[in-house]
Amino acid sequence: MNKLIKHCKILFRIFNQNKEIxxxxxxxxxxxxxxxxAYNKVKYSNFNIDEINSFKECxxxxxxxxxxxxxxxxxxxxxxxxxxxxNICKKGASKIKFCQLLYFIIKNLNSSSVLEIGTxxxxxxxxxxxxxxxxxxxxFITMEGIPExxxxxxxxxxxxxDNNKYEIKQGLYDYTFPILLKENHLFDFIFVDGNHNKQSTxxxxxxxxxxxxxxxxxxxxxxxxxxxxxxxxxxxxxxxxVNYSIDLYQxxxxxxxxxxSNKNIKFKLHxxx
Length: 273
Ligand SMILES: C[S@@+](CC[C@H](N)C(=O)[O-])C[C@H]1O[C@@H](n2cnc3c(N)ncnc32)[C@H](O)[C@@H]1O
Known about the structure:
- The chain is of the alpha/beta class.
- The protein has helices at residues 2-25, 30-43, 49-65, 85-92, 96-109, 123-132, 147-158, 173-182, 198-208, 227-237; strands spanning 71-73, 82-84, 113-117, 139-144, 166-170, 187-192, 212-221, 244-247, 251-257, 265-268.
- α2 runs antiparallel to α5 and α5 (96-109) packs parallel to α6.
- The chain binds S-adenosylmethionine.
């Protein structure tokens, strides 16, 4: 039944896509237009040769992770379980289209200070760093609890950029998040892809709103994953500080732009299953 509802909702978006794209283009917001441009590029795989090569390199890392049988312990979460890297990759890593979307949004917005909650194996992080690579001031901070995943991602990230371009904050968020908040950051792009429950998602959003630049973008993953996440997304998109939101079913994009007086304008699109 749930699957049927999901497919109906997605079909509805597909039918309405052109209307929704036209509606987006009627608003005069730079970030919104750049996000739409990124969406169109990914939706229709409209890539140039450099982008194709860049994505090929990112996907080679995914493919090698999907063959990796190293066991990873979940002890840090108080769970007596071990999982192979290949299964962690299959279950946890963002799908290719959503990684490409991250890449183009960051590139188009010229984001220079990017935060990710949920490093995992660094698959999305690989795309983020590729997008930031030629940004002289570009810096990427990502947060992960499992020490072995931090080690694996760090190795991958250091093959793309210098070590000073990224930082992996290792440890449970209950411990690392307060430390992050005390630091002197102003993020312009935030990807929330870890600890998918209602209260944590809302806490991250509300606390991070104080650590963003004048115009910034949040992406929340798994907004339809549970009743709690659906509620969290509803609260976020109606928040007083939010100007625009784009619901992609899998992910929710939010624009906070202090120079724009429009509030809580909502769009729905569908990128990929
Ligand atoms: C969905 S995965 C991130 C996937 C990654 N962004 C990608 O697309 O490649 C979420 C990660 O968040 C980490 N995580 C979840 N809750 C956490 C917590 N409370 N403290 C620290 N890490 C946590 C998990 O260990 C997991 O690796």
